[in-house]
Amino acid sequence: MATRLQFENNCEVGVFSKLTNAYCLVAIGGSENFYSTFESELAGVIPVVKTSIAGTRIIGRLCAGNKNGLLLPHTTTDQELQHLRNSLPDHVVVQRIEERLSALGNCIACNDHVALAHTDLDRETEEMIADVLGVEVFRQTIAGNILVGSYCAFSNRGGLVHPHTSIEDLDELSTLLQVPLVAGTVNRGSEVIASGITVNDWTAFCGSDTTATELSVIESVFKLREAQPIAIVDEMRKSLIDTYV
Amino acid sequence: MAEEAGMFRVHQTIGSVLCCKCGIPMTPNAANMCVKCLRSEVDITEGLQKHVIIMHCPECDSYLQPPKTWIKAQLESKELLTFCVKRLKNLNKVRLVHAEFVWTEPHSKRIKVKLRVQKEVLNGAILEQAYVVEYVQQDHMCESCSRVQANPDQWVASVQLRQHVSHRRTFFYLEQLILRHDAASRAIKIKQMDQGIDFFFANRSHGVKFVEFLGKVAPIRSRNDKQLVSHDPKSNNYNYKYTFSVEICPICREDLICLPPKVAASLGNLGPLVLCTKVTNSMVLLDPFTLRHCFMDADQYWRSPFTSLLSSRQLVEYIVLDVEIVSPEVNVGGSKYVLADAQVARMSDFGKNDKIFHIRTHLGHLLNPGDYALGYDLYGANSNDIQLDKYKGLVLPEAILIKKSYEEKRQRKRGKPRHWKLKSLNMEVDSTAKGRIDEDKMNKEYEEFLKDLEENPELRFNISLYRNKENQPSEMASMTDGEDVPSVPLEELLADLDLSDDENGDDSMRE
């Protein structure tokens, strides 16, 4: 189920948060509203951790991670690193990497099996990604943009990419990622998908400017509606009726 | 190009996304909204004028461009469209792509213009929108029309042109000059008076311009005066009527003049008897016996004015019996003269008595024995001139020849009309005059003027002659005569532009 929210009156929630299947990172805001929205959705299921990276609040764009691990830029301070190591579950590997392109969230887009990387990423970084996150790495561009982490957001069930992506590109990416992809917008026509939405397998959070159309597109491509209890009951009912002739 | 670089380029098909507002599929654009949603979001015509009031003068069909200019324009014309677009403020914020009129009933006093504008909205998308501006036309008489309405004969400046001579040759010539240079285009009325013409203008500056034009083509002196018509004490506005009195000097071409002693001395002792050969804004005086010439401009003349002894009215016809060239050809200011001794006899004497005059003439290059010439008969004339008396011991010649006469040949050609014509100014004839203007005399003088034009190519220089289509000379006829009457060659004639109906054309043309 997709939720609409704002971080301190700003709709770019993907900048200030990072959501994966195992944990959630949230930036430290003036009021607790942002954090509490995440809490209310995810409280019992996964840990919601308040943090900063390199002293900034733009944590969503600086780090890249999935349920297996979390990659941090070299600008992360030791305290932050330690804090994260403490707060996150043990099976999540927290690693700080030396990479010239330090906004890892903009350069790497990943789910639990595949990752798309910036074309100019170092060889060692690529190996680190494959190691720490346990994924297959592909260097790609999206609609001619090299910042793949900004212009697409995908989970294990589906993905949303930049609206100007051509059909051939869409097909190519879809085969690489092995998930259905759709070109669309978020936050009332904004093309920067990953900054407007943060998503995992059963829930998504997007900026409050997102229109109903965009929301329906998001819910359908990430298959969020089936996560609802009602949907599960329907499926069960279908299987029960199967025997009823 | 990609193929040349050796790269393999996949053909890119743009997919469709859903409009973020209404959800209909569309090709992605910079705003990622379909055009309708974008239009509903953003109105680029906001802040632009949709309703304008313009002033229109019903008399002269012109529109006011404040503060003072009135622009003449027809309904649904290009000028009106330009004017309407100019009247819109704030149009520089958007880009105007197209403008056209929407038809409205002419009596409705509304003008509708449909404009298409483009503006950049929302991160780079350019939106184009059409909208209609309505102009309400309010009737308001422009200043010149209201002045005309108040008093149709109202003039502000008048130029009274006079020449105190007994013929109207100068005015015929001036009329053609004025027509050629379009100098009287601003005159609201032209009136023919005794010994002159009056021109009336609506603006003092037009009058001044006309007087300056006259100063360039004739030797004049002028003075001006003004008369108070009305006075507004509150705003200190004074309305005047300005009058320019212009007098042309009475010396004309072909006049015989006896110079006063002082003037003769100042001109280098030019023989007291001189001929005036050319008059523009200065006169050329030629001494026919020494072939000396001098120029005298208007200022010089008016300092010590003199009148002519004999004028072209008093020309008498002579027949040339013998010509003996005395001096070689002399070029005097563009015209050639040859001094010659000639034996002439008056036509009235010829055959009746043996009166022969031996005279010196400057027309040696033109005259042959048996020719006819026109000249002044000093032998028979009784001159009452004060200036002549001042010269004690001056021997007057018996006759002075002025020009060659083509009268005989003209008599042969009497039936044939001319193949060229002149235009004339639209002049009112002063009906309240003392009746001195005689129709017959005028026509005769005009005929003389036309003959003069034919004989003198330099006179034709500044005049526009028009081809008379009805009277074209046939090719055959021109080859028959040996010595022909001088006439205007075809190359000099202008093809007349006939814009008006035939009736109107006839009124304004004189043959």
What does it look like?
The complex is a heterodimer of chains A (245) and B (511). Helix content of chain A is 35%, strand content 20%. The mean pLDDT of chain A is 90. In chain A, strand 3, helix 2 and strand 4 form a beta-alpha-beta unit. Chain A has eleven helices and 15 strands. With 245 residues, chain A is α/β, with parallel strands linked by helices. In chain A, the strands form five sheets. In chain A, strands 1-15-14 form a three-stranded mixed beta sheet. Chain A has a single domain, classed as L-arginine/glycine Amidinotransferase, Chain A, CATH 3.75.10.10. By secondary structure, chain B is α+β, with helices and mostly antiparallel strands. Chain B folds into three domains: 17-142, no CATH class; 144-248; 256-405, no CATH class. In chain B, the strands form seven sheets. A six-stranded mixed beta sheet of chain B has the order 5-4-3-8-7-6, with helices on both faces. A six-stranded mixed beta sheet of chain B has the order 12-13-9-11-10-27. The model of chain B is unreliable at 475-483 and 500-511 (pLDDT under 50). The chains are: A alpha/beta (245), B alpha+beta (511). Chain A binds chain B through residues 163-170, 183-185, 188-191, 211-214, 216-217, and chain B through 10-15, 17-23, 28, 31-33, 122.
